[in-house]
Amino acid sequence: MNSDFSSILAQLADGVPISVDALAQRLSWNRSAVLAAVSSLQTAGLQLQMDCAGAVTWHAPTYPLSRTHIMAGLAPEAAGLIDALEVHFTLDSTNQYLLRQPSEKPGAQVCLAESQTAGRGRRGKQWISPPCCNLYLSVRQSVPVPASGLNGLSLGAGLMVIEALTSLLPPGTGLKWPNDLYVHNRKLGGILVEIPRATRNACDVIVGIGLNVLMPDETANIDQPWTSLNQHLAGTSLDRNNLAARILDRLLPFLQDYPAHGQGYIAGRWPDFDLTLGQPVSVLAGDRVIHGIGAGVDAQFHFRLAQANGTRSYASGEVSLRTHNQP
Ligand code: BTN
After folding, report:
1. Can 2-58 and 280-323 be said to share one CATH topology?
2. Ligand 1 pocket member 120 (CB < 6 A)
3. Is 187 a catalytic residue?
4. What is the DSSP string of 158-215?
5. N or C: which end of the chain has fewer CB within 10 A?
6. What number does CATH give the domain 280-323?
7. Cα–Cα distances in angstroms (integers) from residue 276 to residues 92, 123, 170, 263, 289, in the given order
8. Residue of the nearest CA to atom 2 in ligand 1?
9. What is the three-class DSSP state of 298?
10. Ligand 1 mutation pick, 92, 95, 161, 180, max ligand atoms within 8 A of CB
11. Between β-strands 108-116 and 82-91, what pairing exists: parallel, antiparallel or unpaired?
12. Pick from 52, 50, 3: which is nearest to 27 by CA?
């Protein structure tokens, strides 16, 4: 199914009903392969209808993800940094998939999926990943610095996503430490950085990006206020292949240049997008909740919290903006 999905979805993407026989002919498949694919896609949650005359219709929220379209949309610099770019219909998790891959590749391994059955968020949370509407994108890259030099990389990845999409993002979009994309207190996207291999002078990093693009309004089980690009960009056609290419255009050169320029760049740019700077925030550190005012990041890219008795840094923890009616 994974290797065939993009061809059948591409045939259905214009929303015009098409018979199973015509699909079989166009795809050079037999009828039962088409029927099996339609059934698998329905099981995966796609709204594919088959009428009594055997015509299949898909009211696609957007054009399917396509390796060809993403590659064609990339700038030559980013395209030249890629070893492999795979698009899957469904995976447990794009990060987990890349974790399972051998690590020897010098260039970037890129993986996208239309849906994830076990999408992972930070702090052990689940990342709800319905099919064919959002971006679930991971990059695995060897970076020639020790793990101690990777402080800030996850903040930098968030900056790259914001900078890549600036013209499409609604006013008020920014970053909440370490790398959550927010629009007015609602989460638009998140990043999970994992380090599957670390030696004295090099690490493999996996940067996993989840971005809500056309998230259905009725999506359930998300345990925090969320938003999606389509809620802010009515009438704009949101092409996920183009969004993926724009993100990779920024992210891949950033990872490549990280040893020489990464930390300096992040230190300079972070304040421009830091949503908590000068704002009342709470830090959940272990089982303690500490209130204060967001004071940017320190030289280690740890979160700084100002209180009446001074400013402290937090290397980990959950930062949340306090609204007026919270204590
Ligand atoms: C967070 O904000 O908690 C991080 C969310 C990261 C989600 C992305 S989706 C692509 C990649 N695969 C995963 O399983 N997680 C990341």
Report:
1. no
2. yes
3. yes
4. HHHHHHHTGGGSPTTEEEETTTEEEETTEEEEEEEEEEEEE-SS-EEEEEEEEE-SS-
5. C
6. 2.30.30
7. 33, 20, 18, 20, 16
8. 190
9. coil
10. 95
11. parallel
12. 3
Nearest-angstrom CA–CA distance, 182 and 173: 6
State the alpha helices, DSSP H only, in the chain. Answer: 5-12, 20-27, 31-43, 67-73, 76-79, 94-99, 153-164, 240-257, 263-273
On whether the CB atoms of residues 156 and 302 are closer than 8 A, the answer is: no
Compute the distance from residue 189 Cα to the ligand 1 centre, in Å: 8
Q: Is 168 exposed, middle or buried (0-12, 13-18, 19+ CB in 10 A)?
A: middle
Per-residue confidence of the chain (327 residues) as pLDDT tens digits?
A: 555 677 888 888 888 899 999 999 999 999 999 999 999 888 877 888 988 888 999 887 788 899 999 999 999 999 999 999 999 999 999 999 999 998 777 899 999 999 999 999 998 999 999 999 999 999 999 999 999 999 899 999 999 999 999 888 888 899 999 999 999 889 999 999 999 999 999 999 999 999 999 888 777 788 888 999 988 887 677 899 999 999 999 999 999 999 999 999 999 999 999 999 999 999 998 889 999 999 999 999 999 999 999 999 999 888 988 765 554
Sheet holding 203-211, edge to edge: 82-91, 108-116, 135-143, 203-211, 186-198, 180-183, 173-176
Class of domain 2-58: mainly alpha
- Which atom of ligand 1 has the smallest separation from the CA of 96? 14
Query: What is the three-class DSSP state of 312?
Result: strand
67-273: CATH, from 3.30.70.260, 3.30.930.10, 3.40.50.150, 3.90.1150.10: 3.30.930.10
**Among 51, 54, 55, residue whose Cα is nearest residue 12:** 55
What does the domain layout of the chain look like in residue ranges?
A: 2-58, 67-273, 280-323
Candidate list 26, 67, 105, 122, residue with the active-site label: 122
Indicate the residue type of 281: V
Q: Which structure tokens are listed for 224? A: 């925090």
Residue 123 CA to residue 266 CA, distance in Å, equals: 23
